[in-house]
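A note from the maintainers: we've had questions about how concatenated examples are separated. There is no special marker in the raw files; a new sequence line simply starts the next protein. For clarity in this README we add a label.
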Amino acid sequence: METGGTGTMISRIRGKLVSVLENRVEIEAAPLVYEILVPSYALAGLRARRDQEVELFVFHYIENLQSGNASPRLVGFLSETDREFFTRFIRVPDVGVKTALKALVIPVARVARAIEAADVLALNEMPGIGKRTADKIVAELKGKVQKYALLGAEAESEAAPLSDFQEEAVEVLLRLGYKRFEAERMIRKVMAQHRTIASSETLIQEIFKSAAPAAVER
């Protein structure tokens, strides 16, 4: 049995990504190192950020509560909206935390689009999701996850490694005193709005232009 929610214990964890394993990561937030389960779709982007500072939005739950071997677990997400979708997804009958983690091999936005389109075949292709469960997912969530589907391009880009010129922009922002997670957040936000940007110079200009007249978001 699994129980839990975001609760008030831990909402997000920020620290050095020290390990990326098959289905989990380890983040060092001194003096502690947290083991965090992560959906497969997010792991590729995180592998490219090993030994860098990252921030994950976390979901806390208790595993094996009734068996006498209760274990607290953390599940991590690249964005708050992904975590929000996950909490809806696991409430569907026969879809708990473990099934959801196994199933989410594609970004949340694509899952949401399949649900809104009642694409049972696409959902059925996700690991651990049979046709009956796919039908339940559509029945329970269709009409309730539009906002996650509409955030598709931005949400999917969260899991993608930065391009070379975007990494150059990161280095500029780091020299200006920003943390890496802050720099990446600003870069992804601007790139979602200006997809034709192809140089670090233009990207930096747009970051500061979009922040004017206020200071760049910290």
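[label: protein 2]
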Amino acid sequence: MAESLIPVYIMGKRYDVPEGLTIMKALEWAGYRLIRGCGCRGGFCGACATYYRVPGNFRIQVGLACQTPVVPHMTLVQLPYFPVNKAVYDLEQAGSPLETLLQLYPEATRCLGCNTCTSVCPQKLQPMYYVAAAVRGDFARAAELSFDCIMCGLCASRCPAQLVPYNIAIFVRRYYSRHMRPKPRHLQERVAAIRAGRYDRDLDAIAAASEEELKKLYVEREFEKL
């Protein structure tokens, strides 16, 4: 049976591609070599943010190219990068949390509360709420709300106040983890044991093992009970 082809428009040019492909696979079918805008292909890395329109709907829609199927007469363009404010900072030299946040991203207070960022998030997160939590100084809440962010950039591309919610969020998570979150005792104990050389012999044995021995160790390893 002949393969069913459908027309799609990539950056304004028509291509006939097999029905049922994702946008990413359709791009490759059409001959595009993806150097940027292509990563994990599993919906986790956020590299393949895409804008598109479909017949019968006047709205611009967004999605990840590796997860969104093509439809007849879809017109699309990828957004592998969007120009944003990306602050450079040293967490060891950072001051108080809110003061540091507003020094790095003073535009965070300009949020209009329009919630456009939430409407385009492929992870169904609520950037407006985690930015608001950060500006209130509630870094624990902001870190929790933004934990599943894949940094695709779609929220920043639509923000009328020119915020970059995902960069604000990653600063908050880094600061919270480094300076505010309680340190897990079992992790500190394990790091101390490693530094004291307790596992040197085991690590040397693993480094010297053959591929087959490593596979056997992996299969027979003990699982931690949760």
